[in-house]
Amino acid sequence: MRAIICDFNGVIVDDETPHFVTYQQALNEFGIELSRDDYYGAYHGMDERNCTIALMEKIRGRVDPALLRAILERKAGLFRAYASVHKPRLFPGVVAFVKAARQRYRLAIASGGRREQIEDALRGTRIERDFPVIVTAEDTVLGKPEPTIYRIALQRLNETDPRPEPPISAGQVLVIEDSQAGLASARAAGMKVLAVATTYPADRLTGAHLVLPDLRTATLDRLEALFQ
């Protein structure tokens, strides 16, 4: 194992609920209904652009580009207002895990969230500068469960690696995820996956190489064993 790529929402920061609530509100304001059960049952893990496209196609039979932009901007504004008052918190164990991992491995974030939201959540935390590569929804139109976002993260890790070593291969990467869409994305990219049961119960996270309650129990030696 030479690199760890983390999903962000639901893995590093505990903000899945406010993201859903503000997204649901934005959709409702434009006449699109989305229940919590439907979201977590079918759409969680997708970026908001592709999720909204899927909802439009299902409900209206077509995609309205102007409406799509309006919904995404409204949701971003709602979440920005929420986060300015209630800054999302890092999950317990995240700081200790990241600080230990960065001593051994290259680290990156690959998230379907917006860069602005990720940088705001990290700002002022002890891990603000520990991820040299951050790939977000703005970097690809092909969100999870497509493997593109993890492939881009790996490419950028190799491009920014100052050490004169052979490039990191997909088989040397561990991805940390919390959703089925994320698991599928990482597996399709040829990477091993640790799933954390912060959003779904462990029995819903099928396909992961290892499932843990959260990062407090994720020792580096245990993760290394996945590659042996």
Gross CATH architecture of the largest domain? 3-Layer(aba) Sandwich
Q: Note the total helix count.
A: 9
Strand order of the largest sheet: 5-4-1-6-7-8
Give the ordered list of helices and strands.
Answer: EEHHHHEHEHEHEHEEH
The CATH superfamily title of the largest domain? HAD superfamily/HAD-like
Shape: globular
Q: Would you count the extended β strands for me?
A: 8
Assembly context of the chains: single chain
What's the CATH class of the largest domain, please?
A: Alpha Beta
The CATH topology of the largest domain comes to Rossmann fold
Q: Biggest sheet: strands, sense, closure?
A: 6 strands, parallel
Explained architecture:
This protein is 43% helix and 13% strand. It has 228 residues and is of the alpha/beta class. Strand 6 (173-177), helix 8 and strand 7 form a beta-alpha-beta unit. The strands form two sheets. It has a six-stranded parallel sheet, with helices on one face. It has nine helices and eight strands. It has two domains: 3-14 and 88-227, 3-Layer(aba) Sandwich (Rossmann fold), CATH 3.40.50.1000; 16-85, DNA polymerase, domain 1 (Orthogonal Bundle). It has helices at residues 16-29, 36-43, 48-59, 65-85, 94-101, 115-122, 148-159, 180-188, 220-224; strands at 3-6, 13-14, 89-90, 106-110, 133-135, 173-177, 192-196, 210-212.
